[in-house]
Design brief:
Elements lengths: L11 H10 L15 E3 L5 E3 H45 L4 H15 L4 E7 L8 E4 L14 E5 L1 H7 L9 E9 L4 E8 L12 H16 L1
Parallel strand pairs: 3-4
Antiparallel strand pairs: 1-2, 3-7, 5-6, 6-7
């Protein structure tokens, strides 16, 4: 392509800048579209129109995939919210620590499809399957400082958090603090799958559950 005044060829950058400045250029020169050819990955040439159609089709596919991902996330959040609501209502009906132990087993292990759950608290030594009081150091204090946390743990670490079960391989956990003026502890939810709870997971719902749990324990 030549500059009409000097006969010197235009650079690619000048052509690009011209088309950006006049994006409707081809509206008045539609016949050029059929003459333009773009190399295809396979080596054959396709017209600009065909290439544009292919690009738009690919963008449409990507947008649909993103939309499907967003819809799936919304469905997952709706389901998680419903389970959280059910657990919250069950916690409000708890009358003693034994009831609390049963609610943790039923709602967390069954409704949330977890393999392990245990609430560790500072106390005088009350011990149930899923609720344990400690007069000394608590198990999560040995290997974690910043909570909430989603991480992978070794079998011996899982043994400390979930002493009722036997652990022969690595697993993953989510640990959320029970920190109020009167309560010190941690809610631990675990899975045999090391990839179930990962560092990039959102802990909003489980943190909310722990806030309710603190209120219930304080009342008891």
């Amino acid at each position: 392509m030549s500059d009409s005044g000097l006969g010197e060829p235009l650079s690619h950058e000048q052509v690009v800048e011209f088309l950006r400045e006049y994006p409707d250029f081809f509206l008045g020169h539609s016949s050029l579209l059929s003459e333009l050819k773009l190399p295809h990955d396979s080596g054959s040439a396709v017209s600009l129109i065909e290439r544009q159609v292919a690009v738009l089709r690919e963008r449409n596919i990507q947008m649909r995939r993103r939309m499907n991902d967003l819809l799936q996330t919304a469905r997952d959040n709706d389901e998680l919210f419903a389970k959280t609501r059910s657990l919250t209502l069950a916690l409000l009906d708890v009358r003693d620590l034994h009831d609390l132990n049963e609610v943790l087993a039923t709602s967390v292990l069954v409704d949330f499809d977890a393999d392990f759950v245990c609430c560790h608290m500072r106390g005088d030594g009350v011990r149930y399957d899923h609720l344990i009081e400690h007069s000394g150091p608590m198990p999560h204090e040995n290997f974690v400082r910043n909570l909430p946390l989603c991480t992978t743990l070794r079998p011996e670490e899982l043994d400390r958090l979930f002493p009722v079960q036997q652990h022969e391989s690595d697993g993953s956990v989510v640990l959320v603090p029970l920190n109020t003026t009167s309560i010190d502890g941690c809610l631990a939810i675990g899975s045999r799958d090391p990839a179930r709870f990962t560092a990039d997971m959102d802990t909003l719902f489980v943190t909310y559950i722990c806030d309710v749990l603190c209120r219930v324990i304080g009342r008891l």
